[in-house]
Design goal:
Helices cover 42% and strands 17% of the residues. It is of the alpha/beta class. The longest helix is centred in the C-terminal third of the chain and has 28 residues. It contains 15 helices and 15 strands. The strands form four sheets. An eight-stranded mixed β-sheet has the order 3-2-1-4-11-7-14-10, with helices on both faces. Strands 6-5-15 form a three-stranded antiparallel β-sheet. It has one domain: Spore Coat Polysaccharide Biosynthesis Protein SpsA, Chain A, CATH 3.90.550.
Length: 417
Amino acid sequence: MEGRKVGKTAFALITRRVDDAKTPIRFLTNARRYGHRIDRIIIAYSHGVDRGVVETLQRQVKVDLICAHGDDNLRQSLRALGLGSDAVDALLDVPSWSCHHEVPYGAYRNAILFNAILQGIDYLLFFDTDVKPWVLIGLDDGEPQWQEVDFVGIHLAHLAKPKVLATTSDYSGYYIIPPMAFDGLSELLIGLGKELSLDYVSLCDIHGCLNLGSHTPGPSVLTDKLLGGNLGLSLHQPWNLAPFFSTVYEFGDQCIKGRGEDTLLGQALVLNERQMVDVDLRIFHDTFDDFPTSPDIARKDVQTRFYNACLGWIGRNPFLTWFLSTMRRNEAHFKEEMKRQAESLSIGAVKAARFFENPQFERLPEALKVSMASLPESIERYQRLTRGWEKLINALTPDELPTETDEEMVDRPPMAA
């Protein structure tokens, strides 16, 4: 079966401040090197814009700047579709801005997604500020060996296929969990909802938690694991998509942004019976911002990065577990899993604190309790968001929505809400 004709393609980038043109220009140059036209780059930001940087980008491509915590143009465009204030407020909800001046990751990505749909974009390609459009294929005496790859072409080759809604891949570079080994590591990872990483991390003395890639992608495979910094979305049938969502919670005097807005999207699309493809394109991720320096967990900056990641996973886990349990209609699973995580974390966090010689990690079980307490509010926000999303889709495509007799709608569950 022939793929769809390639239409408008946009890059998508989320950032606190628009203050560096290097990453987007690097991806634009890469796209042109392989003969691809990028219609525009859509940037969602929260904390400021360097106009000189924007002007530099505008000399290369059309730039859409979206203020992630309240963009008047985006709000007006949504209202112009006929959406009421409640629906627009739900779609653009940023509960943490007024008190903490922080934007959940999901809100950044949704601002881009909504804008792209309104602008008639066909394919939306996300990358993060700390990734590059080439693959790390090796280290030779500490010197990285790179291979540039056709980032746009490989994603589009799969997105243009019928029924493929999303493309993604893992990264090359250092894994977000740095090399570590201690009694209690298993309990810590279970408590963080990262137990699937245990086998990999336990072999860190062999690979150093360094992932390499191939300049020639291997066979693509279906997946439900999406990664937001290496993600392609087809917007041809927005009714088959779902919005991003991520949690926030207050811990101490901090606003903690839950990780996993990409993870949740993957599960929502599985529920909608959409195809997601791992294209095996491991673009480079500079995880600790100092590659090729090996991440030493004894270093304070590495510990801080890992600790913050732990708080982000803890913010994600109660909601994600609730989501999966609800969709499987298995309430007992939620209670059992959260009890298992809490018990494991109470053991693993103490042992991690001793191993790291950092008492900060002893606070992780307390953070999980706070995250659990915020779950009802997160559920309410998510349900409002999905109701707003349904109103947006109905307003955009009132005559194009599939009917219950369409082949692809047979036995299809309702949108997660």
